[in-house]
Amino acid sequence: MNIIPIFLPHAGCKRRCVFCNEYSATGLGRIPTKDEIFNEVDRYLAFFADRENVELAFYGGTFTGLPEWLMHDYLDLAMEIIKSGKAKAIRFSTSPEEITQRKVEILSDYPISLVEIGAQSFDEEVLRLANRPHGVKEIYTACELLKEAKIPFGIHLMTGLPGDSEEKNIRSAVEVVKLKASTCRIHPTVVLKNSTLESMYHEGKYKPQDLGEALNILWKMYVIISLGGVKINRIGICLYGDEVNNVVAGPYHPAMGELVKNWVALEILRVLKKRRGDKIILKVDEGTKQFFTGHKKCVLNRAKEEGMEVIFERASAPELNLRELMKIVLVESLDELFRSEVSGILLAN
């Protein structure tokens, strides 16, 4: 699936969240015109090898928070593109309080493939401190309305927000699985230029996570959500080109998803070390070998630093059940408070 992103910075947003500045994140100073959107579609199509499976995505604002007439205009514009054969479906991001029965009825007339709900957290205090325009109740309501209309939905989570903690992040990951979301996107909070968080950071009122702190939480969320049957479509904030320079502080990395998977692989090797000793022979296929090698061999290098010797032997099918090992390392890493609940969720999936 190829996605053509159309950014509508802050369009439809009723308030500014402390972490957000879409102008810094996208590099755009205004909302694109209709002609600019058509041109952007053609620009992306020129790069796609597969032009048969293309979706148009409206990101960067609160799509269903737009005035109804304007939301209709964008949906009708998308339909022009779909009818011309340049795309097959529409997806967008929005805030949960802007999902209502009336708006769901409007959406039902269009080929909506995914509504990404910007939940960010399932903790009331975190939502309040982030200046989110909704509470936890609105997240559940939005999900239920979309389920009833049979419109697929995803949930966007963030870690490291003001008032956040590992326990709250784990709880949010569990709720994503319970809600049976189609997808989930996670990114650790970074401080963007000209955001409220930047002022808080410079005033000493906010301390961002470092990369290690972020990864230590993200890998657990990744295992819970992915083993819970929810597709993780991205880990880490998506920034293009020079917009990377708008990150003032925080755990930004262009390959955050790979780093998270590398951390999972290392945790599994630590378990195997306890069972097999320092010399670990893995009978694996090529895909599993790459998983335990890591981004720029970082898994093997770190394992060596910890006294492990990892030896690969080629096999048509891997001897290891990665899913079961991921469950084991996850449950062992959690506080007793979460162990039984998370174990029960994973057993059900």
UniProtKB/TrEMBL annotation:
Report the superkingdom from the record: Bacteria
What SMART domains is this protein classified in? Elp3
Q: Which CDD domains match?
A: Radical_SAM
List, for all copies, the residue spans of the domain called Radical SAM core: 1-218
- Gene Ontology MF, one: 4 iron, 4 sulfur cluster binding
Q: Name one GO cellular component term.
A: cytoplasm
Recorded hits in Pfam families, A to Z, give: Radical_SAM (PF04055), Radical_SAM_C (PF16199)
- Keyword field: 4Fe-4S, Iron, Iron-sulfur, Metal-binding, S-adenosyl-L-methionine
Q: Which cofactor does it need?
A: [4Fe-4S] cluster
Q: What is the protein named? A: Radical SAM domain protein
